[in-house]
Amino acid sequence: MPFFVYGTLRPGEVNHDLFLRGRTASEEPATLPDAVLYDGPGYPFAVHRPGATVVGELITAEPAAYRQLLAELDRLEEYEGPGRPGNVYDRFAREALRPDGTTVRAWVYLASPLIARDLRKRGREIPGGDWFNRSAEPLGPGPEGTPSA
């Protein structure tokens, strides 16, 4: 089964280079229906939300690399198995949508329930659900009312 990636595993991002480069059979644009994207500490979290959409890529691993890649991505995403209390993300099989409108079942890592609950209360949603379009929040007013970095 392919992977739907939406953050640091997307092409051009650091974890794509570390984990996926040279180990994929195909990479294509896709969206994840019924999910919203929140900004995390240097990486995003997708959370289930009907009607929202997350932008990303559909990654199909080379068959010979699949098992090892799945295990490595589970470790990266701090996923220890279904419903485990230490999970940062949970891995689900969800329908992703290709640009031509066809759907494909893919693995996707969503924020674990406790993290998702906190994000819904206090998280910063990424408008449009696209990690590449995130913007930094100003830290506060600088001299003469200009934002400071």
UniProtKB/TrEMBL annotation:
Residues 130-149 are annotated as: Disordered. Pfam families: GGACT. InterPro entries: AIG2-like_dom (IPR009288), GGCT-like (IPR013024), GGCT-like_sf (IPR036568). Residues 3-131 form the Gamma-glutamylcyclotransferase AIG2-like domain. This is Gamma-glutamylcyclotransferase AIG2-like domain-containing protein.
